Amino acid sequence: MGRQPDTDHHLGGAVPSAAVRTRQDRPARIPEVDALRGFALMGILLVNALMMAGPYGLGTIPDPGASAFDRGVEGVVQTLAVGKFYLMFSFLFGYSFTLQLTSAERAGTSAVPRLLRRSLGLLVLGVLHAVLLYTGDILMTYAVLGLVLIAVRNCTPGAALRAARILYGGLGAALLLVGSATLLMSDAETAEADAELAEDLPVLVARYRGDASSVVRANISLLPDQFLAALLMSGFVLAAFLVGLHCGKLRLLADTGNHRARMRRILVIGAAVGLPGSLFMALALSGPLGPRWALFATMVGMVTAPALTAAYVCGMLLLMNTSRGARIAALFAPAGRMALTNYLSQSLVMALVFTAYGLALYDRLSPAVVVLGALVLYAIQLALSSRLMARHRYGPVEWLLRTVTLARLPKDRDRSAAI
User: Fold this and answer.
1) Which of 63, 87, 210, 329 is the residue whose CA sits 20 to 30 A from 23?
2) Other CB atoms closer than 10 Å to residue 139's CB: what's the count?
3) Residue-level pLDDT at 189
4) Residue 341 and residue 372: Cα distance in Å, rounded?
5) Residue 7: inside a domain, yes or no?
């Protein structure tokens, strides 16, 4: 599998190899890391599809008409995907930040103006995405928290890792404490709270099935709740940024072959911690445990999700160091190179399917059909990405963001990081 001689990064960042250099002393792409980003796109799509398909997405509110099979499908997605893949993107975003710094230094320019322009570009894209397509946008969070990375850009790798541990530990303890308090609620109190949440659902369904203007109004009406959720999760995102920053400063992903034993340990420990927590969340939200356990189990799932994310990252890197895994990397990598374009186009396609922009199938499809459709869409994206990346250096949105970042049109010889 040949390495592409450039270091562009898209929604997380490609990782340059310290061992492999082009004749111009430019770092080469590492296809395995592009493939990681492409793999994360699949998990993001499965979660977002169920959230965009109807008001009962992933058990946030109990669906009285859901069959056991529907709940089983949601349970699988909750166990394996919810809360894991956006953290993988966040880790890669933090890693690529170090490459942005190196790129600016190599170009003889100040990194800060570039990084601020990139954050502004992500913020604008995120606002448009949230208002027009999907309120569960992550780009605005990345744009804002990216400012923290700029502020701490000169920290040592050890300081970045210590800060990540403190942040994760403090937020995790707080979430578990809040979740534990909800166990004191009676079943009647829990049912009453769910009933209050469900009162507004018919209006939401009507808006998403109405017309284009009503879709926008529905998205705007959901933004306050989404901002609260983003604030809640921002600590984990920032912790993942800092872990990525730590690894990027040490170039740990530039030669994963030297870290196989460590990655195996992370894989085993991460799966042992993350899978039970995620399964507990699924059993509460879509299984037999019931609504009383829902919030506490959700908090447990959120706190243990980083462990499963780490297991996924290490497991994929170990797999892709095998001959069969190299073929998997070749399949996922093109989609990862244009991840920002793919991420936004996923939302566009789903908005056309589920809202009044197109077919208006909001709350009309079962979770199994939604998941199957999402996998078909992802397969199409893999094929299209492969063709586009064989002919072009950037995806369309990556090219646009790169233009904003550099404050000029990209030139073919530009090989510095884009996002």
Assistant:
1) 329
2) 23
3) 67
4) 21
5) no
Q: What is the pLDDT of residue 93?
A: 94
What pTM does this model have? 0.88
Of the candidates 408, 403, 402, 404, the one whose C-alpha atom is nearest the C-alpha of residue 7 is 402
Q: What element of type H or E holds 166?
A: helix 157-182
pLDDT, position 13: 39
In which domain, by residue range, is 180 found?
31-406
Q: Could you give the CA distance from residue 184 to residue 182 in angstroms, rounded to a whole number?
A: 5
Q: Are 58 and 50 in contact (CB under 8 A)?
A: yes
Give the chain's domain count: 1
Residue 107, amino acid = A
Which run of H or of E encompasses 246? helix 212-250
Task: Calculate the alpha carbon distances from 310 to 45, 86, 234 in Å.
Answer: 19, 12, 18
Would residue 417 count as lying in a domain? no
Helices assigned H by DSSP within 57-138: 68-80, 85-107, 111-132
- The dihedrals phi and psi of 322, each to the nearest 5 degrees, come to -100, 165
Which positions ≥6 away from 409 have C-beta within 8 Å?
403
Count of other CB atoms within 10 angstroms of residue 18: 11
> Which one-letter amino acid corresponds to residue 78?
Q
Burial 272-293 (b: 16+ CB within 10 A, else e): ebbbbbbbbbbbbbbbebebbb
Name residue 415's amino acid. R
